[in-house]
């Protein structure tokens, strides 16, 4: 086999491995307890779990994304969601309907100036059948994002993803990571939603920070409170007693 043939075979093999890894990142929703409304969900390996957060490993996956600039997160999310929903409903060059998956990711920059517009990026996970060759969007504001292999710190919560709730949950996770001196990408976080707007109860949301270096899987335990002992001495007998 000549040199060119070897290089071609190697490139083909690497492409096959990448494709397999991407497909393996998306799978049946019955593998997750909080993917309840879609057939497929983003799969992960649980690295460790403390009472404060989880550490998860995700393989590479392809998403369809769009950016929306707004002062209020809720406004930006609504505009972006409608744009992506049109894409999966058939606003693509093939005119096909793309099944909805879970979760939906909202990338939130950490540095947001008050009363100044912020660029939010909303992403839908592409189903496994379209991980390799998704239909091209007809809207130029819709594009594809290839997210690499990553490990993330995760904090889960219920209710709805609003600017107040997501900001609070992100703050609480940062405080927990600070307590264990964990390193993570602090330039942005992901607000992660698994439920449709029609679901009113038992909703599942998350906040993610991407780890940097080795993840921290332990959390410091509070010191045990000890009752101080008081020693008394009987002046008559000379005996000592602890209270």
Summarize the topology.
Blueprint: H1 3-24, E1 26-28, E2 40-42, E3 45-49, E4 54-58, E5 61-70, H2 73-88, E6 104-109, E7 118-125, E8 142-147, E9 150-157, H3 163-179, E10 188-193, E11 205-210, E12 231-233, E13 240-242
Antiparallel strand pairs: 1-2, 3-4, 4-9, 5-7, 5-8, 6-7, 6-10, 9-11, 10-11, 12-13
Search tags:
two-stranded antiparallel ribbon; 243 residues; nine-stranded antiparallel sheet; globular; alpha+beta
Description:
By secondary structure, the chain is α+β, with helices and mostly antiparallel strands. The chain is 23% helix and 30% strand. It has 3 helices and 13 strands; from the N terminus they run αβββββαββββαββββ. It has helices at 3-24, 73-88, 163-179, and strands at residues 26-28, 40-42, 45-49, 54-58, 61-70, 104-109, 118-125, 142-147, 150-157, 188-193, 205-210, 231-233, 240-242. The strands form 3 sheets. It has a 9-stranded antiparallel β-sheet with strand order 3-4-9-11-10-6-7-5-8. Strands 1-2 form a two-stranded antiparallel sheet. β3 and β4 form a beta hairpin. The longest helix has 22 residues, at 3-24. It is globular and about 55 Å long. It starts with a helix and ends with a strand. Mean pLDDT is 86; it is low at 6-23.
């Amino acid at each position: 086999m000549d040199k060119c043939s070897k290089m071609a075979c190697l490139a083909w093999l690497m492409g096959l491995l990448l494709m397999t890894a991407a497909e393996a990142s998306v799978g049946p929703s019955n593998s997750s307890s909080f993917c309840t409304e879609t057939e497929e969900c983003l799969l992960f390996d649980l690295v460790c779990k403390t009472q404060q957060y989880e550490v998860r490993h995700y393989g590479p996956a392809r998403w369809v994304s769009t950016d929306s600039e707004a002062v209020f997160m809720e406004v930006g999310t609504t505009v972006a969601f409608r744009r992506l929903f049109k894409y999966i409903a058939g606003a693509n060059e093939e005119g096909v309907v793309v099944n909805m998956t879970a979760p939906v990711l909202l990338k939130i920059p950490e540095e947001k100036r008050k009363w100044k517009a912020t660029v939010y990026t909303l992403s839908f996970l592409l189903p496994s059948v379209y991980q390799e060759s998704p239909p091209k969007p007809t809207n130029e504001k819709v594009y594809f994002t290839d997210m690499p292999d990553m490990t993330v710190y995760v904090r889960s919560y219920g209710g709805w993803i609003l600017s107040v709730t997501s900001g609070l949950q992100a703050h609480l996770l940062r405080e927990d990571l600070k307590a264990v001196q964990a390193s993570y990408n602090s330039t942005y976080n992901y607000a992660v939603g698994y439920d449709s707007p029609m679901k009113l109860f038992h909703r599942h949301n998350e906040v993610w920070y991407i780890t940097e270096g080795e993840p921290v899987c332990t959390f410091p335990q509070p010191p045990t409170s000890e009752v101080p002992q008081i020693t008394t001495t009987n002046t008559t007998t000379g005996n000592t007693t602890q209270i």
